[in-house]
């Protein structure tokens, strides 16, 4: 499988998440304050909540429902109640296109 275009870089707001679905896999795409683009699983491992509706702060994405924050770099939860990580996907930028393959996990 090859990476799919999920959005343009210019569509991503800084310090905000965008929900995309690639091959049936929900992914939260985040452009952080340093203009780095991250892609993590969009489902909170604590409560089956869409993480893309949460809050971006630094290199974390916080679930709006119960407050668990996940590292955008590793997918690991940084506080309770979540204790299971979310997947982290490799992101490619090609010109203004953001590409993600949900079958390729980011090397951590």
UniProtKB/TrEMBL annotation:
GO molecular function: 2 iron, 2 sulfur cluster binding; metal ion binding; monooxygenase activity; oxidoreductase activity, acting on paired donors, with incorporation or reduction of molecular oxygen
Keyword Chloroplast among UniProt keywords: no
Source species of the chain: Microbacterium oryzae
Residue intervals of the Rieske domain: 4-100
Keyword Iron-sulfur found: yes
Entries under Pfam families matching the protein: Rieske
SUPFAM superfamilies listed in its UniProt record: ISP domain (SSF50022)
Protein name: Non-heme iron oxygenase ferredoxin subunit
Record keywords: 2Fe-2S, Iron, Iron-sulfur, Metal-binding
InterPro entries tied to this protein: Rieske_2Fe-2S, Rieske_2Fe-2S_sf
